[in-house]
Design brief:
Number of helices of chain A: 14
Distance between the termini of chain A: 10 Å
Oligomer: heterodimer
Helix content of chain B: over 70%
Largest interface: A-B, 50 and 43 residues
CATH architecture of chain B: Orthogonal Bundle
Strand content of chain B: under 5%
Radius of gyration of chain A: 24 Å
Shape of chain B: elongated
CATH class of chain B: Mainly Alpha
Structural class of chain B: mainly alpha
Number of strands of chain A: 0
Largest sheet of chain B: none
Structural class of chain A: mainly alpha
Chain lengths: 318, 294
């Protein structure tokens, strides 16, 4: 167990290092000299260019720059944003919790709704409600997240705020502030749930269908167990296992959902920060969000693997 | 190739087709795709491309649907119907090109990882797993931000982020095929890597790759619309994503201009649904375990 844990954490650390190195390749090597981009269209002398290069540390050879960059990244220093003129990490820290709130709430709700509908669909396979919910899920899966968001916003009119996280004139006490945030969160949350739950529904449904013909279910029925007990105690726990892994594997989907949904609804989270960074383009900021978002998904995957070992006695024993 | 072999192949293809045709969803998808492709190909002949030019508009901006402009006009006064129609072309081309790139990378990596084994396999699979976990949109955004804007960039950005799933699938299938005795026989008779891969592994893997391709196109088209929506598409061309980008930038929601929002998104949904239906039907035909379960 300890050895397995060490292996997994070690692998994740290597992946994180890969992400940081990829960040260097993407934002420092491919774009070329950042000084040229920063001073485009402005009269600058050769001395000023050299000074700027020395200040940014881009006058050194690439290998030396990479070592400097790695050392800074380990300290959590991702440079200064061009647009905000503030440390990237500080900006990311500010925007972190709105994203956690939005993605956390919608993922939990999407998992609950998706699993429940998936179980119902598989158990009554081919029934009218199964056909409708599967068809709807497929259609929703095909929808671009941001489009659904814009449609929802159009359809609800003035019922919900069109963007942001709170009104400036809300009283500062906790209750009115939370109600205001909840009011702003309804549409972004609904949009993310609508697109993500379909994935969970389809996975749960096919995973339960795989179990439907298993012998242990026949045995359970032969013992005289009621239908819903067979489902709840025997079929669903086994079908849940592959679903758990897939839920975590699709976290990338949640991240991309966050980027587009936050862009549509101006939700002040990491997704909107990514969008602001790419419109600049504000390369240090984009590099920071790239490393943080990718790192978060890698970390969550390690948790998924550990959770899987806790849940599945077969894996634990081997 | 002898006549008997061709006859057998024809019979097998016929059986596959009959099984595919017996699934309503697959047929609906196929017909939908045929219609959309035809419309996309016919656009330059049936419609007048000069209507796409913002300097030559005649209508007022934000005009609701009428008998002259069936789907109204956009913020520049261009016909939304015309824009959506032409958008089909870029969305399809980018979706298909990106899929070809990603399936190519995935197949090569998958076969190489399974066939050569040893450290080649270890390195390739580590690489694949890394890209599998990496959130693909984030990487695609990074790539299309640092590279010059254009169709090539967007194809590259989607292609190099979408391949890991294909690689895993192809690797599993290659391992299954290579464990069978006829591969050992081919090796014993002196067949080299090229012979084993080209004559035995590829024909066995390709049907699966084909199904995977159909499903990948669907996600590539969504990815294209997402990147263009974020403003990372080719600024000189009209695609469904770039239309929605324009709609968002110019406040179509606050203008209540549903006629500008609905058509491009509906286009994406239709194409993606058609490809998904086809892919699922093909999967059922080629994977007997799924029969009667969907």
């Amino acid at each position: 167990m300890i050895r397995h844990l060490a292996g997994k954490v070690g692998g994740a650390l290597v992946s994180l290092l890969f992400v940081v190195a990829l960040g260097f390749l993407l934002f420092r090597v491919i774009p070329g000299d950042p000084v040229v981009a920063m001073t485009r269209g402005r009269p600058v002398t050769g001395d000023q260019l050299a000074e700027l290069r020395a200040r940014l540390g881009v006058d050194k050879p690439l290998t030396e720059q990479f070592v400097d960059y790695l050392a800074a990244a380990v300290r959590g220093d991702f440079g200064t944003s061009y647009v905000y003129s503030r440390p990237v990490l500080e900006l990311i820290g500010e925007r972190l919790w709105p994203t956690v709130l939005l993605t956390g709430t919608s993922t939990v709700l999407a998992v609950v709704i998706g699993l429940w509908l998936g179980i119902r669909g598989a158990w009554r396979r081919g029934s009218r409600s199964d056909r409708i919910s599967t068809g709807l899920a497929l259609a929703q899966w095909a929808m671009p997240t941001f489009w659904l968001g814009m449609l929802l916003s159009l359809a609800t009119g003035d019922l919900f705020p069109s963007g942001g996280m709170r009104y400036p004139d809300t009283p500062p006490d906790f209750l009115s502030q939370s109600l205001d945030v909840a009011h702003h969160m309804v549409l972004p949350c609904l949009t993310m749930i609508a697109v993500v739950y379909a994935q969970y529904l389809l996975v749960m449904r096919s995973s339960l269908l795989e179990e439907m013909h298993a012998d242990y279910l026949t045995t359970a029925r032969a013992k005289g167990l009621r239908d819903d007990l067979v489902r709840r105690r025997h079929a669903v726990p086994n079908a849940l296992l592959p679903t758990v892994t897939l839920v975590f594997l699709h976290l990338g989907l949640v991240v991309s959902g966050a980027i587009t949904v936050e862009t549509v609804f101006s939700w002040p989270g990491l997704g909107l920060l990514t969008y602001e960074a790419l419109t600049g383009p504000d390369l240090p900021l984009l590099q920071g969000t790239f490393v943080v978002l990718a790192g978060a998904v890698i970390t969550m995957n390690v948790f998924a693997d550990l959770l899987y070992r806790v849940l599945d006695p077969r894996v634990r024993a081997s | 190739m002898t006549a008997i072999a061709w006859q057998r192949r024809r019979a097998a293809a016929g059986a596959t087709w009959r099984e595919f045709a017996s699934q309503r969803g697959g047929l609906v998808g196929l017909v939908g795709l045929a219609v959309i492709t035809l419309l996309a190909l016919l656009a330059p002949w049936v419609t007048d491309a000069s209507g796409l030019d913002v300097t030559r508009v005649t209508a007022r901006p934000w005009e609701p649907p009428s008998s002259t402009y069936w789907l109204g006009t956009d913020h520049n006064g261009r016909s939304v119907l015309l824009l959506t129609w032409w958008g089909t072309r870029i969305s399809l081309v980018v979706g298909l090109a990106a899929t070809v790139l990603s399936v190519l990378i995935g197949t090569v990596v998958g076969i190489a990882a399974a066939h050569f084994g040893g450290w080649v396999s270890a390195v390739l699979m580590r690489f694949t797993d890394f890209f599998l976990v990496l959130p693909s949109l984030v990487l695609a955004i990074a790539l299309s931000t640092v590279l010059p804007r254009g169709l090539g960039t967007i194809v590259l950005a989607i292609g190099v982020t979408a391949w890991p799933a294909t690689a895993r699938l192809v690797r599993a299938q290659t391992l299954a095929v290579e464990a069978r005795p006829f591969i050992e026989r081919a090796r014993a008779l002196g067949g080299g890597h090229g012979h084993v891969i080209g004559r035995h592994v590829l024909p066995a893997v390709l049907p699966l790759v084909f199904v995977n391709t159909t499903l990948t196109v669907a996600s590539a088209i969504v990815a294209e619309s997402t990147l263009s929506f974020l403003g990372l598409g080719d600024p000189t061309r009209v695609s469904w994503g770039s239309l929605l980008h324009a709609a968002n930038m110019h406040g179509a929601v606050s203008q209540r201009a549903w006629w500008f929002l609905v058509p491009p998104g509906l286009g994406v949904v239709c194409v993606v649904l058609a490809f998904t239906l086809c892919g699922r039907a093909l999967e059922t035909v080629l994977n007997p375990r799924l029969k009667g379960e969907r």
